[in-house]
């Protein structure tokens, strides 16, 4: 059942062409395939095996002669000629019954597909592996008004449409959409003069929510031309919004399919955060056209080859479109919030995993986000120019191929002459490296000594030192920068760096811009952190100094019963009063570390985290801040007021982010009065939702929740917010019961992943509620996951990750969590997806 990277063998045949005909019917779609195979001279001898799952085989033939293949639940084998031949098959599938949302399925009466990673085998018999690339011609027969597939449009007529994709592609990039859709059209002309028709296809009624996504698409196309020299390569680019979708979106060639939550936007229904995310995801999927589609992965172990690189590219795009410092901080918050727990718990795996049972379980923060960090480190180490040169070489050398991480690193070695053997450990070693720093000042020489070590992780012990780029700057005691950002390259387990010519001991600013995804261990005084908070020229480290102080303050409150650290709060106040600083940046400064992050730090330092105590400390600190800052709050509220029409750009959304941070403190003073006013007056979702959240939190939100429901019950995406917000904002004593009640609400649809995630994901994300000491949080999630598993294994398995930290808590928590994990594990006919996740979480 387990697949290993080391077992890779090429497929025994190449495919010259694929012709597919779909006769659409909800319960009985017929798929006819005609595939031209020729022996692959580079492959070892093997039986002819085609993947196929849940397909009824109607007929099969080779070169026109009927054959009778041996069919198993995984696929078929059949005897084939020694030379080239044509395979034809007809199968029947039932898209209307497909609740797993993998393969061909239906969403609100519309046909759509999701094939990555291994969904094409649920459509027809095929070598469903990314290194088998071919040219697809598709004919769709059905009465639906709109019928789409990959590539360029061909003939259309009464009840049919044909598509031809000239670019060879693996089956995971296949897509089909059919339904009574409407489009928001536009056009783009590439640098070399190709006219491209652009469309965003939606259900009637959603046309007015496409404009922002379309602008994001055009910006992405221009950016990829300008920054990476990459042009689009077909006559059409179609995006389709689908309500039922397991992930965010999918980069199918020329036909990107999106979770509607990741493309539809309007000021009235979407928050600023939604807009930013939509812009990034549109860019991400578009950028895949080169990093993923033109150059794809040899096998699924290489997933980070396309995902790490494409996440890195979309983060560069967002930095260029918005604020680079803000984007960097957001990404690091996300990395620490999602990737660090993964890397430091039972689900830890290398950026390039070595084995898996179900590949869908490896679309992880490690593969995506740590994968992107690895690219960022590589760029920092070789420099911007060498990075461009290497990436150009990658496109030149590997266009049209299915590649590996070795291919990727080789272009950097060839372009720069650098040996990357050690750097490669970032791809093969799991776990978050720890870097301990000590300093010495002697004569005029300042010395920094670094020691690195990586703790053991499941299946990996005794790790080797990695190449860690550490960006460092030095400030003199007056706060002037005396050494601008310099990248130190740490290769050994212990290494020292000298800086000469200082009259007084400088203050170091280490790991600027979070130059490597590591945990920095350094004993410094609060005074030094306060100094960096006041003076650091690196915006990331300035934010980081504040975050460290906030964290240390909360830890002291939790562990020693200390009161809030007023020296820190005064330093922070000075920063917040500095109106030369971007409001978005100041909003980030106002947010402390999350409860989950505090739990993680406590655990790493040898304490058993107590979710109630963590929650209480957060509440106490927030109350203290709001009382201490009675003068500051109105001033910030004034500064963050937006005038003029709503736009979702960085400037306005930064102001609204600051306003929301202020409102949350203000609500603690006025019992929800300002929030209620804002709720009543809001003309955009950002302000409306922020106000509603504060009202619910302060216990004055129940009527507003009903008003909100009445206002928005027709809009699925806004209703997702309504489901999620109550669970997230209510105090832990009420959140679990509310989540439970919501799962029985008439609008709760278990088959819709967005609704399920909104409700149960909010529970899992509410630290004190999920880890409630009577086990009620664990019980509800487990119960719902058990119900979902038969319907949608992928989403079930992903959400099991909520339990990944279970071993950190006290024995009562552990007993409850273990019982629930074992209950899931014991479910009859548990999916392979969920089984793998629960087993790893229990045993890792
Ligand atoms: N390639 C898609 C993206 O990152 C993700 C699709 C993953 N889907 C899945 N079922 N595993 O853009
Ligand atoms: Zn992707």
TrEMBL record:
Membrane-spanning parts: none
All residue ranges annotated as the Peptidase M1 alanyl aminopeptidase C-terminal domain in the record: 528-843
Gene Ontology molecular function: any one: metallopeptidase activity
GO biological process: proteolysis
EC number(s) per entry: 3.4.11.2
Domain named Peptidase M1 alanyl aminopeptidase Ig-like fold: residues: 431-522
Superkingdom assignment: Bacteria
Catalysis: reaction(s): Release of an N-terminal amino acid, Xaa-|-Yaa- from a peptide, amide or arylamide. Xaa is preferably Ala, but may be most amino acids including Pro (slow action). When a terminal hydrophobic residue is followed by a prolyl residue, the two may be released as an intact Xaa-Pro dipeptide
Family annotation (InterPro entries): Aminopeptidase_N-like_N, Aminopeptidase_N-like_N_sf, PepN_Ig-like_sf, Peptidase_M1, Peptidase_M1_dom, Peptidase_M1_pepN, Peptidase_M1_pepN_C, Peptidase_M1_pepN_C_sf
Domain Aminopeptidase N-like N-terminal, first and last residues per copy: 43-173
Residues annotated as domain Peptidase M1 membrane alanine aminopeptidase: 212-426
Sorted UniProt keywords: Aminopeptidase, Hydrolase, Metal-binding, Metalloprotease, Protease, Zinc
Cofactor(s) demanded: Zn(2+)
A Pfam family it matches: DUF3458_C
Classification via NCBIfam families: pepN_proteo
Family membership: Belongs to the peptidase M1 family.
Protein name per the record: Aminopeptidase N
Source species of the chain: Sagittula salina
Gene name of the encoded protein: pepN
């Amino acid at each position: 059942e387990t697949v290993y990277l080391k077992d890779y063998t090429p497929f025994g045949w190449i495919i010259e062409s694929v012709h597919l005909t779909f006769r659409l019917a909800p319960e009985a779609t017929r798929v006819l395939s005609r595939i031209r195979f020729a022996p692959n001279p580079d492959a070892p001898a093997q039986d002819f095996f085609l993947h196929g799952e849940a397909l009824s085989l109607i007929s099969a033939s080779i070169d026109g002669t009927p054959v009778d293949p041996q069919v198993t639940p995984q696929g078929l084998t059949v005897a084939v000629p020694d030379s080239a031949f044509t395979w034809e098959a007809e199968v029947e599938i039932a898209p209307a019954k497909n609740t797993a949302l993998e393969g061909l399925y239906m969403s609100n009466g519309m046909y759509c597909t999701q094939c990555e990673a291994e969904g094409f085998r649920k459509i027809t018999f095929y070598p469903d592996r990314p290194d088998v690339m071919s040219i697809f011609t598709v004919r769709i027969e059905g009465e639906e008004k709109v019928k789409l597939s990959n590539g360029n449009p061909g003939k259309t007529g009464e009840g049919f449409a044909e598509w031809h994709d000239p670019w060879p592609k693996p089956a995971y990039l296949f897509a089909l959409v059919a339904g009574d859709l409407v489009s928001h059209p536009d056009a783009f002309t590439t640098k070399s003069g190709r006219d491209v028709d652009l469309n965003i296809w939606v259900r009637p009624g959603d046309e007015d929510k496409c404009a922002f996504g379309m602008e994001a698409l055009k910006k992405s196309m221009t950016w990829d031309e300008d920054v990476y020299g990459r042009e689009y390569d077909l006559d059409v680019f179609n995006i389709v919004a689908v309500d039922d979708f397991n992930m965010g979106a999918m980069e199918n060639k020329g036909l990107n399919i999106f979770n509607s939550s990741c493309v539809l936007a309007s000021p009235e229904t979407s928050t600023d955060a939604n807009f930013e995310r939509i812009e990034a995801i549109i860019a991400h999927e578009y950028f895949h056209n080169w990093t993923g589609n033109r150059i794809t992965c040899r096998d699924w172990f290489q997933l980070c080859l396309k995902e790490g690189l494409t996440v890195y590219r979309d983060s560069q795009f967002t930095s260029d479109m918005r604020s680079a410092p803000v984007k960097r901080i957001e990404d690091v918050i996300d990395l620490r919030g999602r990737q660090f727990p993964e890397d430091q718990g039972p689900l830890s795996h290398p950026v390039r995993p070595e084995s898996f049972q179900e590949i869908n379980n490896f679309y992880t923060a490690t593969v995506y986000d740590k994968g992107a960090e690895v690219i960022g480190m590589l760029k920092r180490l070789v420099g911007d120019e060498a990075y461009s040169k290497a990436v150009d070489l990658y496109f030149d050398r590997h266009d049209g191929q299915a590649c590996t991480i070795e291919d990727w690193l080789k272009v950097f070695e060839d372009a720069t002459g650098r040996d990357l053997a050690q750097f490669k450990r970032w791809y093969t070693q799991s776990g978050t490296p720890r870097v301990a720093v000590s300093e010495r000042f002697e004569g005029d020489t300042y010395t920094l000594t670094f020691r690195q070590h990586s703790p053991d992780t499941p299946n990996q012990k005794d790790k080797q030192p990695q190449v860690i780029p550490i960006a460092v700057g030095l400030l003199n005691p007056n706060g002037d920068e005396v050494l601008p950002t310099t990248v130190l390259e740490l290769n050994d387990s212990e290494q020292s760096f000298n800086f000469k010519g200082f009259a007084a001991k400088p203050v170091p600013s280490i790991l600027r811009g979070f130059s490597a995804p590591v945990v920095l261990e350094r004993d410094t005084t609060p005074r030094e952190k306060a100094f960096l908070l006041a003076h650091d020229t690196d915006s990331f480290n300035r934010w980081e100094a504040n975050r460290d102080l906030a964290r240390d303050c909360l830890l002291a409150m939790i562990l020693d019963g200390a009161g809030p650290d007023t020296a820190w709060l005064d330093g922070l106040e000075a920063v917040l009063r500095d109106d030369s600083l971007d409001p978005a940046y100041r909003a980030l400064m106002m947010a402390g570390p999350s409860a989950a992050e505090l739990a993680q730090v406590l655990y790493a330092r040898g304490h058993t985290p107590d979710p109630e105590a963590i929650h209480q400390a957060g509440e106490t600190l927030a109350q203290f801040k709001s009382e201490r800052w009675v003068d500051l709050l109105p001033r910030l509220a004034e500064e963050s007021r937006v005038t003029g029409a709503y736009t979702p750009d960085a400037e306005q959304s930064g102001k609204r982010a600051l306003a929301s941070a202020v409102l949350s403190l203000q609500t603690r003073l006025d019992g929800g009065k300002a929030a209620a006013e804002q709720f009543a007056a809001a003309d955009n979702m950002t302000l409306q939702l922020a106000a509603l959240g504060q009202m619910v939190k302060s216990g004055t939100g129940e009527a507003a929740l009903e008003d909100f429901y009445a206002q928005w019950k027709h809009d699925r995406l806004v209703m997702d917010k309504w489901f999620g917000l109550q669970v997230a904002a209510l105090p832990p004593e009420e959140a679990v019961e509310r989540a439970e009640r919501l799962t029985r609400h008439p609008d709760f649809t278990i088959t819709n992943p967005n609704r399920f995630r909104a409700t149960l994901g909010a529970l899992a994300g509410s630290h004190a509620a999920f880890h409630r000491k009577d086990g009620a949080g664990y019980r509800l999630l487990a119960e719902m996951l058990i119900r979902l598993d038969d319907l949608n294994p992928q989403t079930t398995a992903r959400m099991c990750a909520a339990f990944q930290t279970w071993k950190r808590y006290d024995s009562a928590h552990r007993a409850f969590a273990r019982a629930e994990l074992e209950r899931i594990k014991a479910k009859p006919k548990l999916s392979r997806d969920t089984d793998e996740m629960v087993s790893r979480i229990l045993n890792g």
